[in-house]
Amino acid sequence: MSVQPSSPPSTPGQSRSNRTVVVILVVIAVILAVIAALLLHDVSSRHHRGTAATSQAATSASAAATTVPEPTPAPPVPDAQTLALIHSETHRDPADGQAKGKADAPVVMVIYSDFACPYCTQLAQKVEPELADLVDQGTLRIEWRDLAQISPTSPLAAQAGRAAAKQGRFWEFHDAVYAAADPQGHPEYTEDSLVTFAQKAGVANIEQFRTDMTSAETVATVTEATNHAHSIGITGTPFMIVGETYIGGYKDASYLKAVINSQAAKAKTSGTSKASATPTL
After folding, report:
1. What are all long-range contacts of 88-91, with beta carbons under 8 Å and residues at least 24 apart?
2. Could you report the per-residue pLDDT of 188-236, keeping only the tens digit for each?
3. Are 181 and 260 members of one domain?
4. Residues 144, 175: one domain?
């Protein structure tokens, strides 16, 4: 029978050393656990903050989209050549029978229009009455320009307007014609229908009205007015010069009033001047 040798007994120094190692390992484990917990908490906090920020940003964007109104388009700021053309188109002639308002009003609105144009009809029916107070106050002057092109009888209607102007009843004629027009249609006119409008407008001498309406001079004047508008780049109606800017197409009364008041304030602080030019709008 063989006998296995026994392990040598441990000494007190070895026992203390073993305990020290164990303690160190335990401390290291605790430190690592704390570090891991801190890292986990930091990641979680960052995720929470990111989610909250994203949610807040989305909420803010949504609120902005629903509460911020669309900006109102401003009329264009003309360059020097266009501004000179605007001044040349603004006549301020006290003898102009197709203008109303003070000749020295701070703002002149030049309207290129056609009695057969549906948007011109809407402008006359809905917008121009809202501008009457500005005319009465001396802030606004309105000057009419013929751009008779919508229908075959547009020139005849424009000729009738000029015939009414010769008897000082253009704006009354203008109101009578547009009041009867369909704002969605393109009315056709005859000499007799235009005479009826002239009578409603208070034109005194109807025979003279008929003569002036169909005279070669009036026909040529209307044709020349339309050709002139085309030559400076105005091809659609209504087209408006307002002070020192311009507006193509129909705009509602609130928009036009805002532009007129802005131009009036500008005119009072800087003044206006006239010039001649041949660029296009």
Report:
1. 88/274, 88/275, 88/276, 88/277, 89/145, 89/232, 89/241, 90/143, 90/241, 90/274, 91/143
2. 999 999 999 999 999 999 999 999 999 999 999 999 999 999 999 999 9
3. yes
4. yes
Please indicate, yes or no, whether residues 100 and 237 belong to a single structural domain of this protein.
yes
d(CA 242, CA 215): 32
CA dist 201 and 180 (Å) reads 12
Domain count, the chain: 2
Which stretches of 11-127 are DSSP H helices? 12-67, 80-89, 118-122
Continuous H helices in 68-169: 80-89, 118-122, 132-136, 154-165
φ and ψ at 203, to 5 degrees? -65, 125
pLDDT tens, residue by residue, 100-142: 999 999 999 999 999 999 999 999 999 999 999 999 999 999 9
Residue 39, domain extent: 17-60
Is the residue at 278 inside a domain? no
- Residue 37 domain-assigned (yes or no): yes
State in Å, rounded, how far the first CA of the chain is from the last one.
Answer: 126
Q: Is residue 73 part of a domain?
A: no
Sign of the dihedral defined by the CA atoms of residues 153, 209, 124, 99, in that order: positive
In whole angstroms, give the CA distance from residue 241 to residue 248.
9
Check: CB of residue 164 under 8 Å from CB of residue 126: no
CATH number at residue 210: 3.40.30.10
Q: What's the CA gap between 155 and 114, in Å, rounded?
A: 9
User: What is the spatial distance between Cα 94 and Cα 109, in angstroms, rounded to a whole number?
Assistant: 15
Residue 247 belongs to a domain = yes
Residue 137 DSSP code = T
Same domain, 48 and 172: no
pTM for this model (two decimals): 0.72
Are residue 259 and residue 138 in the same domain, yes or no? yes
